[in-house]
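Problem: given the chain below (677 residues), write out its structure.
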Amino acid sequence: MKVVALVQARMGSTRLPGKVLRPIVGKPMIELLLTRLSKSKEIDEIVVATSNKNRDDQLQLSVKSLGYKCTRGSEKDVLDRFYQSAKFLKADVIIRITGDCPLMDPMLVDQCVRRFKQEQVDYFSNASPMTYPDGLDIEVMTFDSIKRANRVASSEFDREHVTPYIRNSDDFSKGSMSYTEDLSSQRWSIDEPEDLIVISNVFKHFAPDIFFDWQDVLELKDRNPELFMANKNIKNNEGATMSTGQKLYKRAKKVIPGGNMLLSKRPEMFLPEKWPAYFSKSKGCKVWDLDGKEYIDMSIMGIGTNTLGYSHPEVDEAVIKTVKDGNMSTLNCPEEVYLAEKLIDLHPWADMVRFARSGGEINSISVRIARAATGKDKIAICGYHGWHDWYLSTNLNSDKNLDGHLLPGLQPKGVPRGLAGTTLPFNYNNIKQLEQLIKENHGEIAAIKMEVSRNEGPQDGYLQKVRDLATENNIILIFDECTSGFRETFGGLHKKYKVEPDIAIFAKALGNGYAISACIGRSEFMQAAQQTFISSTFWTERIGSTAGLKTLEVMERERSWENITEIGNSISKQWQALANKYNISINTWGLPALTGYTFNSGNALAYKTLITQEMLKRGFLAANSVYVCIEHKQDIVDGYFSALSPIFSKIKECEEGLDVSSLLDGPICHSGFKRLN
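Solution.
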């Protein structure tokens, strides 16, 4: 009977890359583990089973230099890697040990192997149930067991973690070994930098001796608990349950303030601790996470950027050609001229255009132009307009000024106090409030800057009244169409209401996922851009304007704005019908193509979390809003509502007394940006 210890190891750890070769007391971790295992009396051969990725070439070389074999196989399908390795090695019995456990005790391994032989089972472990410290996990199994599991196991989880199928199936005989007390809360494996500190402390204490046993470590912890404090707040066995995306997000929060670049995309906004967080590819209305799992995006679709769907073939082809021909040069790209002409054709009231790459940038450019053109400082605003100083200064006098403008309670830290009083908020559809604001700041307001519509449309000719007020008081009227543009009309939403601004700005949908934004306006105001400094290197790159041109071409041919409006209206009606079916009170809101709903309940946030949780299990990225694209075909929408209906049924039970918290697998999602600051 040949007993082979297969040590599972790779360089591509998500949380601690290259950890198996990290030095501990001057030796790579893998060397310490292999050297300690070599003292086993029951192991016939020790082999490292790594992946076939190039980054693991270094590990293979290191292992071979120590005099051990190294087999290679699939990075994700570790079950197959183990089977193929065992088959190649002609192993009768396999001991599974992970490479991040340098405190593994060879005497404990021998004890498990002897028990396995005595009980004559298919599978034996000291980790089911967990009683030994995490990092001393030993699994022993027959070759036939791993062969059968490899043939039958189908889930990605079972194949990545090797033994779950065997452990959970009644088709295998099993045995286990427990310690006299439960020590499973002690963390002796290495997944995080804090773990490396603890294990290094242990080896430093016993150095130069590396053959101390696990009970020596236990006694050390009793005598010197301070050596084990670094990782005390890290949960055990997270790696087995945490997605690759969540693992990467944990790393991100250590090196990126807040964890990412956009508040709206933080996992806490959707499903804390469970949201996939990162994508590997996207196409149409589908997204694949870092584990290769496929989801239908019935959520925010790139924050509303992709009305034609992800990776539209014509737009991508145009961009790829640009990349091949060269994206940057000393000379200017001609596409910016063609795109400017196209935008002016769509908006005959406008004469000139300036481009940038993001909505925040173009918002600030429009404000700078208005101030330069008028010589006035104050801006009256309604709605959401980005993150720059000019906008956040609204909250310098009170952190409640933006409460009705998407960013309630946002603290304007880092914004110069001297900007206080330069940005003045007013509420949508309240013409009297705007009139009073203009009166109180007579002759000081450069621009009225507002979204044409977001969650509600204009009432009683509101937009025209704003237009008249601006004209009468020599104030520039700026329509922020970064979000609304190209969703209900081919161009700005203001075309629907037949009210012309002096300046309008566009972003998001303009490039179908590629960075491009535009400020269009009347020449008498736009020429002021020449009287101030508005300039940036990457506003001159070629990809954005190329994507914008092709996106507009496809939009016009497909009449995409009509398509997504129809789909959005249908979705909104079906939400209401579903709510009526289960006698649940909701409010629907938003532009048709940016539609959403809210539960009229004290548990609204918990219900939103439950929906995201359960829809994720069913293969959907979903919460309580949908940013519609032309790839949201009828079968997609039908499948979405088929999955959503039973969740609404559960919410009805919660409204009748069932505790919603009992249905949640983790924390409730965040309600807004305030909790993330």
